[in-house]
Amino acid sequence: MSPASVETLINLLMLLALLAALTIWWATKHGGRRGRIAERARQAALTQRPDNLAIEEVEKGSGFAQRLIRRLAIIGDRLPLFDAKYRLKLQKEMLQSGYRSRSAVSVLLAIKFAVGLICAALTVMLGSHIPVIGAYPAGRGVMMIFVFITGMIIPEYIMGFRAAQRRKAMAGCLPDALDLLVICTNAGNSLGVSIRRVADELATICPPLAGEFALTADELKLSGDSTRALHGLAERINLPSIRALISTLTQSMRYGTPITQALRTLSRTERLAHIVSLEEKAAKLAPKMVVPMMLFILPAVVAIAAGPAVIQLMDAIAKQ
Fold first, then answer.
1. What is the C-alpha separation between 13 and 51, in angstroms, rounded?
2. How far apart are CA 253 and CA 248, in angstroms?
3. Chain centre to alpha carbon of residue 87
4. Number of domains observed in the structure of the chain
5. Contact yes or no for 130/143 (Cβ under 8 A)
6. Is residue 229 predicted with pLDDT exceeding 70?
7. Which of 147, 163, 179 is the last residue of a domain?
8. Residues 62, 111 within the same domain
9. Dist. CA 219–CA 213, nearest whole Å
10. Distance between CA atoms of 242 and 7, rounded to whole angstroms?
């Protein structure tokens, strides 16, 4: 056999070994009494959902995107590699990122698994070009496992980055939302009506915060359990300022204190904290500009200032 054929055979054996390891893991999860009990509990949880199945939300559309999401949701529901505790953690992260669909966690798990397999396959196929390690099949196998795990982690980090950016955008608009909430409560509106009006006003300024406020207003209108709806808002946004707002509102409703005065104090505090954070960022700007100035601006200034003198000196030396 030629060296290329041997290398191709080794790559195929590595991929088959990875698939065999995943199959053994799947069989271990499903095997035994505990595995059968866990599988029945998971299937029961899937069938007892209010919509009967998570993927029914995307079955209404017939386009390519809807079909792809439906199939990813099916794969994610059947993956045994992730337990219920990890799925619950991902569900909280998806809620904080703005994905409220019941199939969001299943789609994310399927994407994690697919990205890991794709990265592992690319590592096996291109592993021979890696310096030092590529010459040894064992090194390529270790690299394949490492890249597979890394590929499964990347989508979760991307989701966390999206959640952080979303929280940052909502934190910047929160003082304005509190000011609007103070105005609405001063006008005599109830808490639910005030939150709905604030959501309508913020729809073009900060859509994420407007969407969360609109959902809270709907929960207040439908359920009537204000404490649960407000705590749900705090869990979805996950900001200290929002938790302070929810604590202020719940204490005001529990003890009968005026909501307007509490909101006015909290709005003033948040506005001051926002101004202090802007001043802190402005104070950090000067030290951050030192390195770019030394790397990009200072060499140009030195070249312009000392360039003619260096040229004249070189001409004088050449004439001698």
1. 43
2. 9
3. 14
4. 2
5. yes
6. yes
7. 163
8. yes
9. 10
10. 57
- C-alpha angle 24/28/29, rounded to 5°? 120
* Amino acid at position 292, single letter: P
Structural domain of residue 68, as residue ranges? 3-163
Summarize pLDDT for 80-95 with one digit per residue, the tens.
667 778 888 888 888 8
Q: Helix (H, G, I), strand (E, B), or coil: what is residue 101?
A: coil
pLDDT digits (tens, 9 = 90+) for 87-138: 888 888 888 888 887 788 888 888 888 888 888 778 777 766 666 665 666 6
Report yes or no on 115 lying in a domain: yes
For 158-168, the pLDDT digits (tens) are: 888 888 888 88
Would you say the pTM of this structure is higher than 0.85? Answer: no
Look at residue 320 and tell me if it is in a domain.
no
Say if residue 145 is in the same domain as residue 172.
no
- 26 and 139 in a common domain: yes
Half-sphere exposure of 180 (CA within 13 A, CB side): 19
- 105 plus 84 within the same structural domain: yes
Round the CA-based radius of gyration of the chain to a whole number and report it: 29
Domain contains 284: no
Same domain assignment for residues 122 and 186: no
**What does the pLDDT average to over 284-297?**
86
CA distances from 25 to 28, 174, 194, 306 (A): 5, 46, 52, 68
